[in-house]
Design brief:
mainly alpha, elongated, single chain, 0% strand
């Protein structure tokens, strides 16, 4: 976790963008892990990783909508 006192930018939209980036990057990594589990026929792990990936993607989509609305509101 980033120490807020050391962050160069203290802005709620910057924080939202950072969280979005982390969610989507994690989803990308989870795809690799999911494929590894599938290739090794580990159904239990593959299902869990797939669920995590879907949760991250849903959260990312929600965050994108939130950011879009906030930026529109700020820009009139």
């Amino acid at each position: 976790m980033v120490d807020q006192s050391q962050s160069p930018v203290k802005d709620k939209n910057y924080n939202l963008v950072t969280v979005l980036q982390n969610l989507l990057q994690q989803s990308w990594h989870l795809q690799t892990y999911l494929e590894d589990a599938q290739n090794q026929n580990d159904t239990e792990l593959a299902e869990w990783l797939s669920q995590l990936q879907q949760e991250n993607l849903r959260a990312g989509e929600r965050g994108k909508k939130l950011l879009h609305a906030r930026l529109q509101q700020e820009n009139g």
